[in-house]
Amino acid sequence: MSVAPPPTVGVFGGSGLYALIDGAQWVTVDTPYGPPSDAIAVGTVGGRQVAFLPRHGRGHTVPPHRINYRANCWALRELGVRRILAPCAVGSLRVALAPGHLVVPDQFVDRTRGRPDTYWEGPVVGHIGAADPYCPELRGQAVALAGQLGFPVHDGGTLVVIQGPRFSTRAESRWFAAAGWDVVGMTGYPEGILARELGLCYAAIGLVTDYDAGLEGSPEVAPVSHRQVLEVFAANIERVRQLVLRLVTVVADTPGCGCAAAPAAAGVDGP
After folding, report:
1. Burial readout 33-53 (b: 16 or more C-beta within 10 A, e: otherwise)
2. 155 catalytic, yes or no?
3. Catalytic site residue 106?
4. Annotated catalytic residue: which of 38, 110, 212, 269?
5. What is the CB neighbour count within 10 angstroms for residue 132?
6. Which residues make beta-bridge pairs with 102?
7. Which of 202, 185, 182 is nearest to 76 (CA)?
8. What is the spatial distance between Cα 171 and Cα 31, in angstroms, rounded to a whole number?
9. How far is 191 from 76, CA to CA, in rounded Å?
10. pLDDT in tens, 142-191
11. Is the backbone of residue 216 left (phi > 0), alpha (psi -120 to 50) or beta?
């Protein structure tokens, strides 16, 4: 009897994306950091084993500031995952980044507080490099494939990650836009940097669902609501699913980037 190879590609599902792989087996993974957000679905997509973890839980029971990001990343790595795709809902700070568009950020700004955001709490201490926080190989493949599928996609941009679960005030939204940032989300940190501490490739794929708290100079744009986020995400969920399902079949098992070397560059062998 043949044994299926371990999944090398993992997916974190965001708001509105609670299932990805039909007929998957849900497995429970214990971690030194407590339980992940949910069990992990492991199944086959295009002949490849893939692991899927809904970061808010299947019933959206875990708010962004309470997600156990360390356990989630650790659990995927325990299963064999080495490359992570992370679709998420984001609010736009730019007129050109319209609801329904995809944004594949190349930078983030952390505006969260109190979230455990490192595996290196001593006695082993490391200082991870974060100048270019996302995997360039995964980013490039996501942008190229989205374009091939005819989806409106933006290559690069800065994702500012707020604490949540509340949305931005108008003043905060103006501040973020004036700083030159592009989209707002609640789950991009510390998820991505924890993946880097583990030597995993990670790319965020943002689906724009709204214009945050409204755009400066555009009074006709109403502030975001939770209902609007879910409605726009639902209207575009098949686009996100199609992109992610195609991506997991084309990314290489052996990365050509330097993400796996990040822990050693930080002066440690990894957690």
Report:
1. beebbbbbbbbebeebbbbbb
2. no
3. no
4. 212
5. 11
6. 153, 207
7. 202
8. 40
9. 12
10. 999 999 999 999 999 999 999 999 999 999 999 999 999 999 999 999 99
11. beta
Q: Which of 244, 203, 252, 199 is nearest to 77 (CA)?
A: 199
**Residue 233 CB neighbours (<10 A):** 23
* First-last CA distance in the chain: 34
Q: Hey, what are 5's tokens?
A: 């190879």
Which residues make Cβ contacts (< 8 Å) with residue 27, sequence separation at least 6?
39, 40, 41, 42, 79
pLDDT digits (tens, 9 = 90+) for 49-107: 999 999 999 888 999 999 999 999 999 999 999 999 999 999 999 999 999 999 999 99
What six digits make up the tokens of 88? 């998420």
Q: Which two tokens stand for residue 145?
A: 């494939």
Is 204 in contact with 183 (CB distance < 8 Å)?
Answer: no
Sign of the alpha-carbon dihedral angle for 168, 172, 178, 179 = negative
Question: Where do the domains of the chain lie, and which CATH numbers do they carry?
Answer: 9-265 (3.40.50.1580)
Tell me the whole-structure pTM to 2 decimals: 0.92
Tokens 């926080």: give the residue.
Answer: 133
* Whether the Cβ atoms of residue 92 and residue 98 lie closer than 8 Å to each other: yes
Question: Cα–Cα distance between 50 and 69 in angstroms, integer?
Answer: 19
Residues in the chain: 271
